[in-house]
Design a protein that fits this description.
GCK_dom
Length: 212
C-alpha cells in the first residue's frame, strides 16, 4: 500500500493536462466501442468474454488494494514506524478527496464495526468498486495497481481465441496482435475501434516519451 500511495501522489503532482485529456478521450471512445460491440455481440462475443474476464481480475486486485483491512495492518505499525503513519494518512486523504469519499468512508466504518455482516461488507465493497471505475480519471492509480494481472488474464483469453489447431502451442505477441486487429477491423464496429486504437497508440507514445 505504501508504494501505491507514494506513486499515486507523485503521478498526480506531475500529471499534465494532456495526460488527463488523453485518458478522458480514451474512456469516451472505449465506451462507444463497448456499446457497439454489445450491440453486435454475435460477432464480438469472444472479445467481450475476454474483456469481462479481465475486468473481474482488475476488480479482484483493486479490492485487495482498497480493503480497509490492508490499511489496518499498516495502522498497527504506526507506533513502530512514523513513515507508515504518513503513508496511511496519504492513502486516506487520496481516497477521500475523490468522488467516492462517501462510499470509501462507509466501507471503512463497516469494516471495523463488530456488528457489520459480511454481506454488508461485500455490498459496500461492490459499491465502492463501481464508483471507482466510474471515476477512473481520478482513481486510476488504484486501477493501475491491478492492471498487470488484468493484462495477463486478457492476453490468455485472447490467445486462446485466436489460436487454431494448426498453430504451435503459443504464438508470438506481434502475431497475436495482428490477428486481433484483423478480427476487430472485420466487424461492424470498425469505425468505433479505429479512433479508440489511435488514442491507445497516442497514450503509449506519450508514456514512452515521458520515461525517456
Amino acid at each position: 500500500m505504501g508504494n501505491f500511495v507514494s506513486n499515486s501522489q507523485n503521478n498526480n503532482q506531475h500529471e499534465s493536462r494532456d495526460d488527463v485529456s488523453l485518458r478522458s478521450k480514451e474512456s469516451q471512445y472505449r465506451g462507444k466501442l463497448w456499446e457497439c460491440m454489445k450491440a453486435h455481440s454475435d460477432y464480438y462475443q469472444p472479445i467481450i468474454a475476454a474483456v469481462e474476464s479481465a475486468k473481474k481480475a482488475v476488480r479482484k486486485e483493486a479490492q485487495a488494494v482498497m480493503a480497509p483491512s490492508s490499511v489496518g495492518r499498516d495502522v498497527m505499525e504506526w507506533r513502530k514506524d512514523p513513515k507508515v503513519r504518513e503513508e496511511v494518512d496519504k492513502y486516506y486523504d487520496f481516497m477521500e478527496r475523490g468522488a467516492c469519499k462517501e462510499s470509501w468512508i462507509a466501507l471503512a466504518q463497516c469494516w471495523y464495526a463488530a456488528d457489520c455482516a459480511k454481506e454488508d461488507k461485500n455490498k459496500l465493497m461492490f459499491m465502492l468498486c463501481e464508483c471507482v471505475e466510474a471515476h477512473s480519471d481520478y482513481y486510476h492509480p488504484v486501477l493501475e495497481a491491478a492492471s498487470k494481472v488484468a493484462e495477463e488474464q486478457l492476453f490468455k483469453e485472447l490467445e486462446a481465441f485466436v489460436l487454431t489447431s494448426s498453430d504451435q502451442p503459443k504464438v508470438g505477441e506481434d502475431e497475436l496482435t495482428e490477428r486481433i486487429l484483423e478480427f476487430m477491423n472485420g466487424g461492424d464496429c470498425k469505425e468505433s475501434f479505429t479512433p479508440w486504437l489511435d488514442i491507445i497508440i497516442e497514450e503509449a507514445e506519450a508514456e514512452a516519451a515521458a520515461s525517456s
